[in-house]
Design brief:
Helix content: over 70%
Radius of gyration: 22 Å
Number of strands: 0
Length: 481
Amino acid sequence: MEKKSVKKNYLYNVTYQILLIILPLLTAPYISRVLGAESIGIYSYALSISAYFITFGSLGVDLYAQREIAYYQDDKKNYSRTFWEITILRAVTMSISIFIFYFTFASNGEYQVFYKILLIELIGKCFDISWFFKGVEDFKKIVLRNLVIKILSIIAIFTLVKTPDDLNLYFWIYVLSVILGNLSLWLYLPKYVCKVEIQSLKIFRHLKPTISLFIPQIAIQVYTLLDKTMIGAIYEDKSEVGYYEQGQKIINMLLTVITSLGTVMLPRIANFFANNKKNEVKSYMEKSFNFVFLLAFPMIFGIIAVAEDFVPIFFGPGYDKVAILMSVISPILLFIGMSNVIGTQYLLPTKRQKEYTISVVIGSIVNICINGCLIWNYGALGASIGTVVAEFTVTLVQIIIVRKEFEFKKIFKLAINYIIASIIMFIVCKIVSVIPLNEIISLIIQVLSGIATYGLILIILKEKFVLNILRQLKEKIKDRR
């Protein structure tokens, strides 16, 4: 199979990941005003519950399946058999999860009407084969699929959702977009997968390795979803969940740009590892760290600089608390970015699930302890602090695990120029913010001047990674001429 460009796949995957959240992002100003914090909190709380059952039913299949398909990229018969084995296994495990979800949440309770709608989301997960296209490094198909469906979803939201009473319609639009998106990928499948003999399928050979990845997935869910669940369970007024949801929304969009490289690199590094190309693995890893530093530091300082001006313009009145939450949560951009490089790009493709599991389990334990202490008194702010400390812990544990395999002193030195440029960018944004201008114009000028300052300082400091990117862009422009 022809190898796809890492750069093209990264761009496709960034687009794909952004499209996954672009619906709530583009519609957030509208939805925050129409539905209100209480309804948004109910929506977020219900989705956090269904996400546990999706995780349980998926058994860590996505990462495992993507890696397995990548190993057999050049062997159509082998990866076709692997595809059908994993697809059938997931259908079985998701069916069990759907059954339990129905009788524990969807059949009774305060929000049963919403949980019944979310049953369709769980059913749709049975047909999710995006992992296959990631494994064969064809991200273009996934992007095209999402583009059409997300546009239709946005149109539906602005057309149908008009009042807080339309929350059920908001749920319906969400779940229908999920199931239609998953089903549409099957149209491309005949080109890739060949027929296999049913008797040759060994479905349950994948059970043990998927379970080994299931444990870290559960641990990850603990510190990504448990906070919303705990806030929703502790506070009768679901507005607190709504504030937390909105605070994370912007952070997650920015995080997507950083972590998308990990999704692209996993199959590539898995393939290098399978062919014993260790030097190539380390080379890609060092570039990935540089990439994370390039983006994470300006994003963190930028969020802290503009949050107070951004939130009232974007979300509307009554969401002031979101600005504080965004600033507190922002350091996870660096921590998750680094753990994505070590965990997703290195430990998982090189079959070191045990070390990966240890890191996320420790992180989840830290998160539970902090949430238990802080959420009762500080609500969403306490959950935000717990998330940051948990992600820092995961990253620290992973660094300790691979400390002998990478020169972290050298890697951390790569961050110095980015930190200097980010601090100067922050100062410039704050100076611009005190100039008496229209709020929207002021925000736009802050963002543009911040980006320009950051780029200029890096050029002045002669940052090699950035200069290399600029050099490559110039060469491409010349070639096109």
